[in-house]
Design a protein that fits this description.
globular; 18 helices; OB fold (Dihydrolipoamide Acetyltransferase, E2P); Diaminopimelate Epimerase, Chain A, domain 1; 19 strands
Length: about 575
């Protein structure tokens, strides 16, 4: 593991911000906070105040998004003329929360609305011909597609031929040609001047609702209770938590902590985890919502999010928890088989990992790809059989754009889409070996040395005196953490740990005292022999509440032998 200190920002910006923060000499603020802010693009005092207190009035005008006027006009036409509207969404967290969001809003407006989540195994990702035919057969004249559709050229044409209009709300990278829909909302469109490009699919759906409300002279009041869905999607889809996403995440977290909807409350009961941050969402709600689409059907998750009855929600949450347990067991089995395949083929030293088995569960191959990266740190693609084709999930390593690598080999594919770090693709079985060879060659020629080893970026070296309650309270105000605003990581040099012991099942975790504070190292039990001498540590500063007692603690990110004697 490489340790890399975050690039030091221009001292002039840090000096200026530090001076602004320290106008009151009785409450001096450590210079490290100014440096952390500037490194995240916050350069002025005004920007810092906005960062620390994100508010709804910072959301951009939704009509800045290309086609928004067309989308609003078509949806309002459907409302006024009593049309039947079908909400179509992907089966992952982003897609199902987006469906629940738009469905809830339109249902409250008295629209005859229903929703459709494609079957991962029978229909695959994105707009499906089956779903469009379902709309036509059931007299839906408008489909609002969420978190999908940006590359569904032929499917949208098919819908049009049946007399079904389409409004697309997507955030994935568009292709060279856009579908011929009534409106295509996507901030990543090259001809879209919308100032914030990193919305998730649910976020784009929220902007549509914001625009409808604005067109009728209303503010966000009617949408506030729905921001919990957007926050869950932001956390699960690993999008930037700066800009509008920071505002929406904060609004949603407030709803989740003060008045969680019955479905989320029931799921939190299954996870036995408190909810205070996006990280908590990603460990508690997101895996369970995803499990429904992975192991069974995404409609289970939407139904849970829409229910108003806590008793019914508890029963649905128990069913989803079973899907989650099944998912865990399955991904462990498939991961072990994939590792065995790599070893059997002698492919331990390749530049990329590509594995395939026709019987692997399609719902876990993305998770398995991430598991394989933990062992072989390199771009990874995991294939399984899906009808007449092979389908795959791809995951990348830090700094490497796997979408571009897949795109470079697209002549062998029937379909692909995604992001720089995660993508999906399909191909004919006869093209598997050709793609595998082409992908390996492309990665071999484009993978840089810094891509071949995992790295931890830390924000600076601290002295033990920095570990104090006041500084921790300031660090808390940096939340929510995520892409573009990672949790600050600090380096402590020359530490002699005390009271070192193993905890947890099979002693997997390490616990010790570090400068009068508890230190917990999850998964570091195997390092116990290395901490007998002085070590350098990378840590985050956190809190621990146990039996009503609150105290600061350090969470270990990595350690190595200290150069200090």
């Amino acid at each position: 593991m490489r340790w890399v200190q975050r690039d030091k920002p221009a001292s002039s910006w840090v000096d200026s911000l530090h001076e602004a923060f320290n106008q009151d000499p009785s409450k001096p603020l450590d210079r490290k906070f100014s440096r952390i802010l500037v490194s995240r693009g916050i350069k002025t005092y005004a920007q810092a105040l906005t960062f620390f207190k994100p508010a709804s009035d910072e959301l951009h005008n939704p009509f800045l998004m290309k086609d928004m006027d067309r989308a609003v006009s078509r949806v309002k036409q459907a409302v006024s003329e009593g049309e039947r509207v079908l909400i179509f969404g992907d089966y992952d967290v982003d897609g199902t929360t987006a469906v629940a969001l738009v469905y809830s809003y339109l249902e409250k407006r008295g629209v005859e609305v229903s929703y459709y989540i494609p079957d991962r195994y029978l229909e695959g990702y994105g707009l499906s011909y089956q779903g469009i035919q379902f709309a036509r057969d059931n007299d839906f004249s408008l489909i609002i597609a969420l978190d999908c559709g940006i590359k569904s050229i032929e499917e949208v044409d098919f819908a049009s031929s049946l007399g079904v209009d389409m409004v697309i709300c997507d955030h994935h990278k568009p292709g060279d040609t856009l579908p011929n829909a009534i409106a295509v909302l996507n901030p990543k469109r090259l001809d879209c001047q919308y100032p914030f490009k990193e919305l998730c699919g649910c976020g784009v759906g929220f902007k549509l609702l914001q625009a409808i409300e604005a067109s009728e002279g209303r503010d966000l009041e009617n949408l506030m209770s729905l921001t919990d869905l957007v926050a869950v999607a932001i956390g699960a889809d690993v999008v930037s938590v700066m800009g509008e996403n920071r505002v929406l995440a904060n609004l949603g977290l407030e709803v989740l902590t003060k008045n969680p909807r019955p479905g989320f409350k029931a799921l939190l009961g299954q996870s036995n985890r408190e909810l205070t941050s996006l990280t908590d969402l990603n460990f508690s709600l997101a895996p369970r919502i995803n499990a429904a689409g992975r192991m069974k059907q995404g409609t289970y998750a939407v139904s849970l999010m829409l229910t108003d009855d806590f008793g019914g929600a508890k029963a649905e949450a128990q069913a989803i928890e079973q899907f989650n347990q099944d998912r865990r067991s399955t991904d462990q089995t498939v991961s072990e088989e994939a590792l065995q395949q790599i070893a059997a083929l002698g492919e331990e030293n390749r530049f990329s990992t590509i594995v395939y088995h026709p019987n692997w569960h399609k719902g876990v191959i993305g998770i398995v790809a991430s598991r394989l990266i933990e062992v072989y740190y390199r771009p990874t693609v995991v294939f399984t059989k899906s009808g007449e084709y092979l389908a795959a999930s791809a995951r990348s390593v830090h700094g490497y754009d796997i979408y571009s690598a897949i795109e470079a080999c697209s002549e062998h594919l029937t379909q692909f889409g995604g992001h720089a770090y995660a993508a999906g693709l399909s191909l004919k079985e006869s093209s598997y070996n050709k793609f595998k060879e082409a992908f390996e060659n492309y990665v071999a020629n484009t993978l840089k040395p810094e891509h071949k080893e995992p790295e931890i970026i830390y924000d600076g070296v601290i002295e033990p005196s920095f570990i104090a309650e006041r500084n921790f309270r300031i660090l808390k105000r940096f939340e929510p953490f995520g892409p573009d605003n990672p949790e600050p990581v600090f380096r402590l040099n020359g530490v002699q740990l005390e009271q070192v012991r193993l905890i947890g099942i099979e002693g997997k975790h390490l616990k010790a005292r570090c400068h009068s504070f508890d230190l917990i190292g999850f998964g570091f039990g195997k390092e116990i022999d290395r901490v007998k001498n002085k070590v350098d540590l990378l840590v985050t500063i956190s809190e621990n509440n146990w039996n009503g007692k609150w105290q600061l603690q350090l969470k270990l990110k990595d350690l190595k032998e200290s150069q200090e004697k």
